Amino acid sequence: MHDTQLPTLKAKDFSSDQDIRWCPGCGDYAILKAVQKTLPNLDKAKEDYVFVSGIGCAARFPYYMNTYGLHSIHGRAPAFATGIKLANPELDVWLVSGDGDLLSIGGNHTMHTMRRNVDINILLLNNRIYGLTKGQYSPTSEFGKKTKSTPLGSPDYPVNPLIWSIGAGCTFVARCIDIDVKHIEQLMTRAAAHRGTSFVEIYQDCNIFNHQTWFYASQKDGKKTNTLLLEHGKPMIFGEDSEKGLRMNGTKLEVIELGNGVTESDVLLHDETDRGLAFMLSQLLYPDFPEPLGVIYCSDEQDTYDNVVHKQIRQAIEERGVGDLEKLINEGDTWVVEDD
Amino acid sequence: MTTTTDTNHARIDATPLDAVAIRFCGDSGDGMQLTGGLFTNTSALFGNDIATFPDFPAEIRAPRGTTFGVSGFQVQFANTDIYTPGDSVNALVAMNPAGFKTNIADVEPGGIVIVNEDEFNKINFKKCGYQEGYNPLDDDELNRRYQIFKVPMSRLTRESLVDSTMGTKDIDRCRNMYALGIVCWLYDRPLEPTIRFLDNFFGKEKQKPEVAKANIGALKSGFYFGETAELFPVRYQVAKAKLKPGKYRKISGNEATALGFVTAAAKANKQLVYASYPITPASDVLHTLARLKQFGVTTFQAEDEIGAVCAAIGASYAGSFGMTGTSGPGLALKGEAIGLAVMLELPLVIINVQRAGPSTGLPTKTEQADLLFALYGRPSECPCIVVAPRSPSDCFEMAYEAFRLAVRHMCPVIFLSDGYIANGAEPWLLPDLAAIKPIEINHPTEPNGPDGTFLPYKRDPETLARPWAIPGIAGLEHRVGGLEKDASTGNVSYDPENHDKMIRTRAAKILKAADTIPPLEVRGPVSGEALLLGWGGTYGTITTAGDELREKGHSVSTAHLRYLNPMPKNLGEVLGNFKTIIVPEINLGQLVKLIRCEFLIDAIGINEVRGQPFRIDTLVRKTLEIMNR
Ligand SMILES: Cc1ncc(C[n+]2csc(CCOP(=O)(O)OP(=O)(O)O)c2C)c(N)n1
Ligand code: SF4
Ligand SMILES: [Mg+2]
Fold first, then answer.
1. Which stretches within B424-555 are classed as H helix?
2. Minimum CA distance residue for ligand 1 atom 12
C-alpha cells in the first residue's frame, strides 16, 4: 500500500491531544506508553493502524492514541475488528480491552475471532476486576474474592485467559506485566509480526479497586520465584538465583531444584510451537508454580481468516469473471411481454 | 437437453378463465414448495401475472401425516394484473388426508379437489385426527360441495417408473411431479420449463441423472393421465396477462432484496459486507449474497446477531458498505449496536424480515408488528431511517433506496420486509440498469478544520451528514465511539448544552431524508370518503380491496407508505382530503397510532394478527363497516 519511505516517527506522534482520564497510578498508563513506544519501530504507516476497544477503563485506550480509533460497545470489539478486516485486510488492527469486556460479556466474540484466526492483535488488560463500574468481581477474579457484589466472596471459579485462548485455537498467545515496559514492547513486536490472531494478556494493576493483585508477580521480592520468563529453545529456569527449573514427570510438569547432580540439561526446553506444552504451561498457577511470561504459543501453520475470505472472492472472480449486473438480473428464466 | 412433448397446443374444449388460485398441500416432506414453485415458473413464463404464498411449518419434517406437518403453496395466475395469491382456492391438490383436512375449508364452493387416494387410509386418518370409520372422500356433504377427484397417485407413479433403477422410497418421492403433471394438463400448461429445471437441478447440479429421469417420467405420466383418463370433464385456460411490455422474470422478495443491494453497491462503487446469523425468514438473503462474491460481496456468518451487526458497522467504518439481516428476535439483539451506529454516524442497513412473534412465535408465518420497534426500540433518542418494501419486486427498489439514504445521511436504515413478501414471488419487470442513478460517495482525503486538523463531525449543511473518513488516509486520523461528541470538534464531551444540541441534530438529520423521498401516491381519486392507508407487505390485498370497492361504486382510494421514517412530506395533505382514514395492518395498530398522534386525526385500524396475510374480502367488509358507522 505504501511504497514510499515511511517517515520516522516518535512515541509522541502516537499520542493524541486528549487528556488521559485514568486514575493516578493505574497500570494502564505504562501499557499505553509501551504501545506508543513500540509502534514507531514497526513497519507500518501511522494511518494504517486502527485501535478498537469495547467498554471499560482499559477500553478508553483508543482515545489516547493518535491513530484511527473505534471505541465501541461492551464486549463486541472483536466483532468490530473482524468487520474492519473484512473491509480492508491491509489495516493493522489492535484491540485493547479489559477482562470483563473480552472474557465475560464479549467471551463469545473473543472465542470465535480466535478460532477463525482473524489477523488482529488483542491486548487484554487484565486487572481481575471491573474497574469502570467501580469494583465488582470479574471473570478472572479469584474464587472467594470479596468485592462489592460478592461480600461473602466470589462463588465463581475464574477463567484462565491463556487456556481459553489456546483452547479457542488462537495462534499466538503471550503474557506480560504492566510495569515491564520493555517486555511489553518485545511481545507487541512479536504479536505484530504474527499473521493471525495474536493474544497478549497483560497483568494490569487497578490502583483503586484491586491494588496489588499481581504483586506476587511484579514486585522485586518474589517475582523471580513466582514467574517464569519463557524463551523459545531455552531451558525453563526460574528462581531468585535461577536455581529452579521445570521438568516433565510422566504427563505432568514438575519443579526441580538445580544442583546436587541435577543440571540445566535436565530442565525442559521451551518450544513455543508445541500446543500441548502451551496447555501445560498455561495451567501453572501461583503459589504452587511459577506463572509463565513471554510467548507461550506461536504457530503460523494456519491461514488467516481475512486471507481465506479474500481468496474465495478472487476464486469466485476467476471462475465466474467479474460480476456482470446485467447478467445477474437476467438470471434464470425470463420472458418478454410484447407491445400490442 | 430439451424434450418436446405435445403440450403446447390449445385444446378446443378448454374453458377460458381470468384467474385461478391453486394450492398444493401435503406433508412437509412431499416437496410441495418445489411443486408450487415449478408451477409458478411455468405460469410466469407462459405470460400470466402471478402471486404466490408459500406457507410451511416451522419443523423441517414434522411427524408424517399430522396436521401440523402440512406444507402448502398457493399460487394465483391470471390474465390481468393481480396483487395477491387470491382469497379462496379454486383448485386444491392434497397429497394426504392431513393436507385435505387443514385446507379444504379454503376451497371455493364447487372448487376442484385432487387427492392422492392412496394416502387416504385408516392409519393416516388416525394421524390427522379424523374420527374412526370416517373417510372424508366418502362424505356426501363434501362431495356435494366440491368436485373431488380421487387419483391413486402413489400406485400410478410406481407403475410409471417400473423401469427405474431407483428404490421404492425414491420413486415415491416423485409423486409430487405426478401431481404437477395432472395439474399442468388440467390448466393447459407446458411441461418444458419443469423438464428443463429437473434436468438442470437433479441431472447437472446434483449429478443424479436417474433422479432427473424419474421425476420427468412421473411428470409426463401425470400429464398423460389427465389426457387419457377422462376423469376431468373440462380443461381450463388462463390467457396471457397484458402486463407492461418488457422483459420479465419471477422473483421472490428475498432475492430482490439481495439483488437490490448488490445493484446499489455497484452504482456506488462500494464493496458490500453482509454480516448475518441464520434466521427464518431472512436466511435466503445471506444465501443469495454468498453466491455473489464475484461482485465484490463479502458475506460473514457471524457467531451471533450481535457479532453480525458489529462486524457490519466495523466494515462501514473501514470504508465498505456494511449490512446485516435478521428477523424479530435478532433485531432485538442488535439494538445496542444500532445505537452505536447512530452515534458513530456511519452508514448501515439492517434488514428485518418480520415474522410472527413475540419471541419465537410462529417463525415461518408473517406479521407486521415490528414497526414501532424499528422506530423506537432502542434506548434514548435514537432515530433511524425506516423503509418498507411493499411487494417482492419492490424489495429491489427499496434496497437501493435504503442504501442511498444510509450513505447520504450517514446513518442506519432499517429495511422492514416480511415473511410474506420475502418468500412470495411475482413477475419482475427487469429494470433498465443504465437508468438507475449512480450513488455518489465522497471520502475526504484532506483535513477540513483549522490548522490542518480533521473534524470528523463537521456536517454537510444540506444533508447534515458528517464526512465518511476511512482509515488508511494520512492526516485524517481520528477517534469515534459511543460517548457523546462535541458538536464542533468531535471529541468526547459531557457538556449539557452540547448533548441537547447533538440529540436534536441527529433527529433533524433523519428528518432531512424527507427532502429526497418521493411523495406519497394515491390510487383512485385524490379526495373522497375513505382512504385505505397501508405499509409493507399488505400492499397487494389493500390495493385489490380498494379497486373492488371503487368498482362497486364506493368512494375509497388507497395509498401505501414505503418510507416510514421519515414519512413523505405530502402525507398530511393526502390525509386531509379524505373523511375517513382506515389503516389495515397485521398488528394491533401501529401505523395507525403514528398517524393519530402525528396528524391528530381519528384514523381507524383494521387489525388481524393470525400469521397470515389479510383476505381481500375481510378488508372489503371491514372497510364498509367502518364507512357505515
Ligand atoms: C451492555 C453494557 N452492560 C454493562 C455496562 C457497564 N460496564 C461498563 S465497563 C464494565 C466492566 C468493565 O470491566 P473490564 O472489562 O474488566 O474493564 P476495566 O474497567 O476493568 O478496565 C461494565 C460492566 C455497559 N457499559 N454496557
Ligand atoms: S479504576 Fe482501576 S483500572 Fe480504572 S482507571 Fe482507575 S486504577 Fe485504572
Ligand atoms: Mg478489568
1. 496-512, 539-551
2. A56
Whether A80 and B312 have beta carbons less than 8 Å apart is answered as: no
> Would you list the DSSP string of A254-297?
EEEE-BTTB-GGGSPBP-TT-HHHHHHHHT--TTTSPEEEEEEE
Residue B8 predicted with pLDDT over 80: no
Angle of helix B305-317 versus helix B328-344 axis, rounded to 10: 30
Q: Which amino acid is at B465?
A: A
Q: How far is CA A99 from CA A294, B220, B281, in A?
A: 19, 66, 36
C-alpha cell at B121: 387410509
Report the 10 Å Cβ neighbour count for A150.
Answer: 15
Are A88 and A177 part of one and the same domain? yes
Contact yes or no for B537/B423 (Cβ under 8 A): no
Q: Which of residues 282-341 of B touch A (CB under 8 A)?
A: 292-296, 298, 300, 302-304, 306-308, 310-320, 322, 336-337, 339-340
Torsion of CA A310, A316, A322, A323, to 10 degrees: -110
Query: Is the CB of A202 inside 8 Å of chain B's CB atoms?
Result: no
Displacement of CA B479 from its chain's centroid (Å): 40
Is residue B477 within 8 Å of A67, Cβ to Cβ?
yes
- Ligand 2 contact, A127 CB (< 6 A): yes
Alpha helices for B318-362 (secondary structure H): 328-344
Query: In total, how many domains does chain A have?
Result: 2
d(CA B358, CA B349): 23
Domain annotation for chain B: domains and CATH numbers: 2-238 (3.40.920.10), 249-435 (3.40.50.970), 522-627 (3.40.50.920)
Are the CB atoms for A89 and A175 separated by under 8 Å?
Answer: no
In a domain, A209, yes or no: yes
Residue A142 C-beta-side C-alpha neighbours within 13 Å: 9
Q: Is residue A297 part of a domain?
A: yes
| Burial class, A163, CB count within 10 angstroms (exposed 0-12 / middle 13-18 / buried 19+) | middle
Q: Cα–Cα distance between B439 and B461 in angstroms, integer?
A: 19
Query: Which residue owns the Cα nearest ligand 1 atom 23?
Result: A133
Phi, psi of A275 (to 5 degrees): -70, -35
The domain containing residue A103 runs over which residues? 11-230+272-306
Q: Are A154 and A255 contained in the same domain?
A: no
Q: Which three cell numbers stand for residue B138?
A: 366418502
Q: What CATH code is carried by the domain that includes residue A283? A: 3.40.50.970
Residue A160 lies in a domain: yes
A225 & A241 share domain: no
The pLDDT score that the predictor gives to residue A4 is 59
Instruction: Dump pLDDT digits (tens) for B304-336.
Output: 999 999 999 999 999 999 999 999 999 999 999
The model's confidence at residue B5, banded by pLDDT at 50, 70 and 90, is very low
A51: which strand partners? A69, A94
CB contact under 8 A, B483 and A71: yes
Prediction ipTM score: 0.97
| A236-245 core/surface letters (b: 16 or more CB in 10 A; e: else) | bbbbeeeebb
The stretches in chain A having pLDDT less than 50 are 1
